[in-house]
What does this fold into?
Amino acid sequence: RAKELIYTGDTINAAEAYRLGLVNHIYPAQELMEQAKKLAQKISSKAPLAVGYAKYAIGRGIQVDLDTSMGIESDMFGMCSSTMDQKEGMKAFLEKRKPVFQAK
It folds into this structure.
């Protein structure tokens, strides 16, 4: 289906894009900014280094072969495991509180 859309230039509506998995959510126009802000807040509440490493792994991983991609994922996981934020996340979990990440 993706090739057909690309080759033909056919347009599809939001419901079809959602059905095909091309978009994750559909909102009425008047709710869009509020929902986008909620998603941004949810992401920004996570450990910033981990989010950055994940972003890098995804972006770089799609440019290389599977073995290299898996190596990148492993490297990024290892880097996350040695951060102060990882320790804070574990400590907060054990103490049943929200973590306070510092991008360290």
